[in-house]
Amino acid sequence: MDPDGLSIERMKLRAHDMSERTARRGRESAQERLERLRGRSFMILQCAVTAGASWWLAAEVLNHPTPFFAPVAAIICLGFTFGQRLRRGIEVAIGVALGVLVGDVFVTFFGTGVWQIIIVCGLAMCLATLIGAGNLMTIQAGVQSIIVISFAPRPDQALDRWLDAVVGCALALAMATIAPSAPLRRPRLLAAALMQEMARTLSAAEDALRRGDQEAADAVLDQARRGERDLAALEEAVKEGLAVVRYSPFRRSQVSSVESYGGLYEPLDRANRNLRVLARRCAVSLWRRQTVPSSYLAMMAALAETAQFMGNELYDGRLPTAGRERLLELGRQSSHLVLNENLSAVVILAQLRSIVTDLLELTGLSYAEARAAIPDMD
Length: 378
Hints:
The protein is mainly α. The chain has helices at residues 3-61, 69-84, 86-110, 114-130, 135-150, 160-176, 182-211, 214-225, 227-247, 255-262, 265-287, 294-315, 324-335, 343-362, 367-373. The mean pLDDT is 79. The radius of gyration is 29 Å and the shape is elongated. The protein has 2 domains: 38-176, no CATH class; 182-373, Methane Monooxygenase Hydroxylase, Chain G, domain 1, CATH 1.20.58.220. It is a multi-pass membrane protein.
């Protein structure tokens, strides 16, 4: 085939590869959005039901004609309690109720206007600050006071809107104690997903090195870097889960369970950092055309299988203690491998051994115990 023909073929292959990557990213993005919706489905349902219930309560029990602030206050409070639970929910509730109260009192005597908005906003925020409010409560007080003064009440309304806000906030805080089980499962599922993604990254790195595929190695590095975002999600989920079990009277018996999954974060963080270094060195070794011994690649494949096994254990609701023997055996085998003469191969082996140490911590060993369990190189 002539050179021009070869160039055209390469361009076609590259275009096909780019289209596949674009489609894959599109699927991943859609999957992430669906996962986000699934994760927030309970919160959305909770907000909708509480908004309706607070309107009904203010309208039917308190006999208020249009209790606008009841569902608004309920949604604001529940929106902040989800993930932060009662501490921030109470803070928001106080800010909302205080802002509505100040606005209601002020507009009843002085009406609405520019100077009224300036004074009532400043007054509400000053009062919130004086009672020891944080930024969130202070801002809510200012916002709610402005909303109230913008909608002037009828003479017979008096403090109806403040009572509506109190009803909405109280109902929201009561609903917040009915904790869903999702925040308790989420840290475990995220940790499992991290382990399985780590397994896929190790497998992809091993495959790229065996085939000598530079582009595949670059893709592996991008794949390894995505773990940082997943770790941030895990850290947030652990905090949310702990808040749920500590403040909800229905979930306190599960504190130790959530804490045990929370303990997975630090070793997973270190393992992910070591994985990124390994992926980067794999790309460098292919760029420099340096050979990585097949024994190192075999260890990489075995470590990928072990990481996949541990991820499956987490998905099934078990801490991955069953992976300890596999990891100890990998550590023993790695100590007998011959050090290669090129730097990239040595770094890859060192990172594999470091990842084995990190994963041993997931099985219940301390850092010192895990480090001592990996023999020195022969």
